[in-house]
């Protein structure tokens, strides 16, 4: 555990050279969400626009000794209004990222995916955890553990491509995607293994690009070279994966939380596939995780500015 947070620290150090990313913070009406935005602003990661009931935001700041002087506040009536106005700021070009405050994730995402006034693109929206696991040499991306409950094969194409594009934004030297199941062989009785095989063939045919993709792989096969040697698995990904694609939300949620609570990992959360990166934080997140989520969004926004592409968002 001696290397705890070192990957996040490198990420934060790199982002110090970037300009702050204008970020609409939706409904920061409790201490953790407001302090997280202010701390990220203090480090120069984001330039926040606080969107919510002005009186509540100011009361939270005063009660908890949080200095919000100089930070713009866009007044909103309630959480739904906060989400809609935060999304509108992005559509107006006033924000390059969106950050969840103390409202429920569903409220924010409902405004994001609304067909006429939201931030939809041709891509499926998906969530990635960028995980700093002290006992693993690589930074790990785990997807999707928060948005898509039971993704279809078509959904998984976008989920994987979003994660690959994120890995490139984070400057992974090589992106190695493991499509997880309970085993490393294709079994018709286990649908996730069949989907994994199909996704690998789609990668072979360049329907998924930018990474080496292999699966199905059990978790041990994906991250343990010792397991790979014992099972004699011939794969460029096995034992060395840095992107883990789970079968469904339940598996992803359990995997991410197991890494956090049993392996001491920090998990930065970001949603991709919309017009801008969306920073999802939880009240249980550590300070390091909150700041890292903002840093990840800053890097995604940087790539989007430089390429004019929405592919990484």
* CATH class category of the largest domain: Alpha Beta
* Portion of residues within helices: 40-55%
**Radius of gyration using CA atoms only:** 19 Å
Oligomer: single chain
Please tally the β strands and state the result: 11
Low-confidence stretches: none
If helices are DSSP runs of H or I spanning 4 or more residues, what is the number of helices? 11
**What's the arrangement of strands in the largest beta sheet?**
3-2-1-4-11-10-5-6-9-7-8
Describe it for me?
The chain has helices spanning 6-15, 31-42, 54-64, 79-91, 105-113, 153-169, 191-204, 219-223, 225-231, 249-262, 287-307; strands at 21-26, 46-52, 73-75, 97-100, 126-132, 140-143, 176-180, 212-217, 243-245, 266-272, 278-279. It is α/β, with parallel strands linked by helices and 313 residues long. It folds into two domains: 1-121 and 274-313, Rossmann fold (3-Layer(aba) Sandwich), CATH 3.40.50; 126-269, Isopropylmalate Dehydrogenase, CATH 3.40.718. Helix 1 packs across helix 11. The model has no long low-confidence stretch (mean pLDDT 93).
């Amino acid at each position: 555990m001696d290397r705890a947070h070192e990957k996040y620290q490198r990420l934060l150090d790199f982002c110090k050279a970037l300009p702050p990313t204008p970020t609409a913070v939706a409904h920061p009406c409790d201490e953790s969400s407001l302090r997280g935005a202010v701390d990220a602003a203090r480090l120069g990661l984001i330039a926040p626009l606080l969107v919510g009931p002005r009186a509540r935001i100011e009361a939270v700041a005063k009660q908890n000794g949080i200095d919000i002087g100089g930070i713009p506040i866009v007044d909103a009536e309630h959480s739904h209004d906060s989400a809609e106005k935060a999304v509108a700021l992005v559509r107006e070009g006033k924000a390059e990222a969106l950050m969840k405050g103390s409202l429920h994730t569903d409220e924010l995402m409902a405004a994001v995916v609304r067909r006429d006034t939201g931030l939809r693109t041709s891509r499926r929206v998906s969530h990635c955890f960028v995980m700093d696991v002290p006992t693993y040499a690589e930074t790990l991306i785990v997807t999707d553990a928060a948005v898509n409950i039971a993704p279809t094969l078509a959904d998984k194409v976008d989920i994987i491509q979003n994660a690959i594009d994120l890995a490139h934004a984070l400057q992974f030297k090589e992106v190695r995607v493991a499509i997880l199941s309970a085993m490393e062989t294709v079994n018709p009785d286990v649908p996730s293994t069949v989907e994994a095989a199909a996704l690998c063939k789609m990668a072979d045919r360049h329907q998924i690009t930018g990474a080496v993709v292999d699966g199905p792989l059990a978790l041990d096969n994906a991250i343990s070279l010792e397991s790979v040697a014992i099972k004699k698995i011939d794969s460029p990904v096995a034992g060395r994966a840095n992107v883990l694609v789970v079968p469904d939300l339940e598996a992803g949620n359990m995997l991410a939380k197991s890494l956090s609570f049993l392996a001491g990992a920090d998990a930065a959360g970001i949603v991709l596939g919309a017009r801008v990166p969306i920073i999802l934080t939880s009240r249980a997140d550590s300070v390091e995780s909150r700041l890292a989520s903002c840093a990840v969004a800053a890097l995604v926004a940087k790539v989007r500015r430089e390429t004019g592409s929405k592919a990484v968002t």
